[in-house]
Write a structure and sequence with these properties.
Largest sheet: 4 strands, mixed
Number of helices: 20
Mean pLDDT: 80
Strand content: 5-15%
Strand order of the largest sheet: 2-1-3-4
Length: 417
Amino acid sequence: MKSFWIVLKYELKEYFASKGFVAFTLLLALGGIILLSLPRFIDMSEFTGVGGKEETEESKTEEEKDEWDKLYLLDEAGVTDLEVLRQFFPETEWIVAENIDALKQAVEEKEAEAGFVVKSADAYDYYVYNKGMYDKNSVMFDEAMKVFYRIAYCAENNLDYAEITGMLETPITVNEQILGKDTESNYWYCYMLVILVFMLIMLYGQMIAVSITNEKSNRAIEVLVTSTSPNSLLFGKVIAGAISGLVQSGIILGSILIAYQFNRAQWGGILDMIFHIPVQVLVTFAFFGLGGYLFYAFLYGAVGALVSKMEDISKSSGGLMTVIMVVYFFSLIQLANIDGPIIKVLSFLPISSYSTMFARIAMGSVSVAEIVISFLILVASIIGVGILGAKLYRMGTLRYGNPIKLSTALKSIRKSE
């Protein structure tokens, strides 16, 4: 046990003394704080909907109007209303053409983006020089023409247009009473947390494998195994990586969440779907995320012990990476069907419960018993994989040359027992 603590302290010192580790952590934490504090120093009202000056048509400067799109209009039927058109085309300057030739010339010389010639209450010609894929002018003008047609029809038949419009567009008040979970609102922060734990597993798992292989390649492992047991070495490295990853992700995620809560009013709450994470979900994420990390970290440690050269790591860890990637994409896809049978099964499997169980807690219906059973399965799997990884590590530490196949390593362990 003493040797385990020695290895753990040494590995933690290596992580926390690394300038790259500290710089990366501080850079992401500070970057998140700065980005989420921008509305306090920069006018982002167009995006957040908070603050900013309300501008009227009269308050627009001529310089601003020069940047607007210009559209020409020739109303031969006398049914249009420029005020209505400005509501359909904001930040657009409407120019009344003297005749059709003047309108065509303006469009051809690109003095105007496009031109409209209204023939009657329900017909018009649209003139444009080059029509782009995203040209919506005619679509918007169609809607405006429908309004003009209704106004003219009501006037001809002595009907009150405002009364009819009010009747047709009566607002409906809906008070949602969500008795369970709001899946739509919780989707995005679950999506983000799944990506976060996936990145931790890939990053720190690879670091553990590289560290062990590097010790084998320079024969440092021969000195280490004479002073401490392989079990203490593997468990020390894995636990140190888990603590480092937890501290790093805690600092980064904590800084971002605190910064958002501090600036939430300036954002108008529009990022709640990402950063407004319930404490229950964060706690579950911490336990299951840490468990998933330990599960795969022991496997990465064993992979590192089965090879002797750095260039062999990617080849030997290919199968493990495939499993992680498949689970990752499956988990993301199944978030849209959180109460489906597939994600329920995945939430009990140790290879995937680290991401799917906390997602079910946040977005679906899950009992306390299911959470406890899933976590116990994960803990038991971590212990089993840890013991297996330690045996593979002990068997592979002093074997050099070509990478050892997993099947061969398992046969060797079975024979030795």
